[in-house]
Design a protein that fits this description.
With about 100 residues, this protein is an all-alpha fold. It has one domain (about 5-100). It is about 75% helix and about 0% strand. The longest helix is centred in the last third of the chain and has 18 residues, at about 60-80. The model has no long low-confidence stretch (mean pLDDT about 90).
Amino acid sequence: MIIYTSLKEVMNDKFTNWQKKLQDNEWYFHDCRKEITCNLTPSTAYDLIPEIIDLILEQIEVFLITECFQLLLDVYRAANTTENHPYLLKNMINISFHVETAGEY
């Protein structure tokens, strides 16, 4: 059993050989997001938002950027809030630039 210390570690593991995993299971990323978010408390989910934003900014594959955004949406749902996280607000310009320069999906 692998023990992770951060969501970033979990996702980097999930992203390893992701094309093959997705080929074997078209619901792979959906299942990953469900696994991550199913038992989150609202406060824990809210606290994960900065890690996900960093994940978005670290990805170079457009498909993985999109999956990170989907994870962000799922975690926001689990956080049960409409409040914009301060880390999101702080990084909006960086996120916009990163998405614009990443290429086409």
